[in-house]
Design a protein that fits this description.
The protein has 13 helices and 8 strands. It is an alpha/beta fold. An 8-stranded parallel barrel has the order 1-2-3-4-5-6-7-8, surrounded by 4 helices. The longest helix has 16 residues. It binds NADP nicotinamide-adenine-dinucleotide phosphate (NAP).
């Protein structure tokens, strides 16, 4: 019933960090960002054929969407796919807060449709899901997905959409070596059985699994992610060392291997890109082969870290 099948890439590009001001240490991520740097990221991604960009209205309260729309306007709209999200937490009081929020996102992005529109969090599935139906019918939204929903919420949303001839076409949850709740809860199996793409977010645990950060070189002071991750960096070392060692044998780096692990598990990782050369890492990641022994060793080391990286906005699955 949707206009075409969702084109699922091997890897999608995340822009939560683009909602920060770009000043080092400022905001959620605290990564230094410049307009020229973001344009270079987009150029490299375009050249490499990575074309699905994930954002949300709440990332910097419109800033990520606005900056992304600005950066991508150098390309024909058909060259890239935009994925953004409705968030009930900031819903307005009009007749259709979902349609209203989509209009805001379209204006921020400088476009008249999004390829993929998500319900960001499962506030009230029967209340919000039906609002997606007219947006699909109007063509302002090509495909819909649900994020941070557990299996019964996914099935309920799918049933509501199904009554109108649509379906949940994508799932987006936190999924990394350190956080495999969607796998444990059967959501990955459900997606595989139903032929629904599972988009894995925070595969690099916001940089903590990149191997770049350590107790001596922590995540940017003043950023929100530093508060979450800096205290656990010592426990992560054996895992990031193993990621690096596997990468070395294939001319790749630790984050490339973490991304390759998510691909090997059947998911589409959404990787937050803040630096042009991270696109090179994604190119390497899609060609890495991991053996089942590599995967088992990485998961055993991840379990041994004994850390819990559940986000403050996430529920137990
Ligand atoms: N639906 C949801 O609720 C939800 C929640 C979270 C995220 N997301 C989506 O998923 C995307 C990904 O998550 P995320 O950005 O939070 O975290 P992430 O992808 O786990 O980590 C991104 C961070 O890792 C570092 N990094 C990325 N590539 C690297 C490389 N090749 N080498 C070394 N470091 C690298 C960068 O940090 P530095 O800048 O410090 O180098 C970057 O900011 C988000 O941007 C967003 O689109 C969705």
């Amino acid at each position: 019933m949707t206009i075409d099948n969702l084109k699922t890439p091997k890897v999608a590009l995340g822009t939560w960090a683009w909602g920060d001001s770009g000043k080092a240490g400022d905001g959620y991520f605290g990564s230094p960002l410049t307009q020229a740097g973001l344009e270079e990221i987009a150029d490299k991604a375009h050249a490499a054929g990575f074309s699905l960009w994930d954002t949300a209205i709440v990332y910097g309260m419109g800033r990520s969407e606005t900056v992304l729309g600005e950066v991508l306007k150098r390309y024909p709209r058909s060259d890239y796919q935009l994925s953004t999200k409705f968030n009930a937490r900031i819903a307005g009081t009009g007749d259709d807060p979902v349609a209203d929020m989509l209009e805001q996102s379209l204006a921020n992005l400088g476009t008249d449709y999004v390829n993929l529109y998500w319900i960001h969090n499962p506030a009230d599935v029967p209340r919000w899901t039906p609002h997606l139906i007219p947006l699909l019918k109007s063509g302002k939204v090509n495909h819909v997905g649900v994020s941070n929903h557990n299996l019964s919420e996914i099935k309920l949303a799918d049933q509501i959409l199904g009554e109108a001839g649509f379906r949940v076409e994508a799932i987006q949850n936190h999924y990394s070596l350190l956080y495999r709740s969607s796998e444990d809860a059967g959501i990955l199996d459900y997606c595989r059985n139903q032929g629904i793409p599972f988009f894995a977010y925070m595969v690099l645990e916001q940089g903590a699994l990149s191997g770049k950060y350590s107790p001596e070189n922590p995540l940017p002071e003043g950023s929100s992610r530093a508060e979450t991750y800096n205290g656990m960096l010592p426990q992560l070392k054996a895992l990031t060392d193993k990621l690096a060692a596997i990468g070395e044998s294939q001319g790749a780096a630790a984050p490339d291997v973490a991304t390759a692990w998510a691909i090997a598990k059947g998911t589409t990782p959404i990787i937050g890109v803040t630096t042009p050369h991270y696109i090179d890492g994604l190119v390497r990641a899609v060609s890495i082969t991991l053996t089942s022994d590599d995967i088992a060793e990485l998961e055993a080391l991840a379990d041994a870290t004994n850390v819990n990286t559940r986000g403050f906005w996430e529920q137990e699955m």
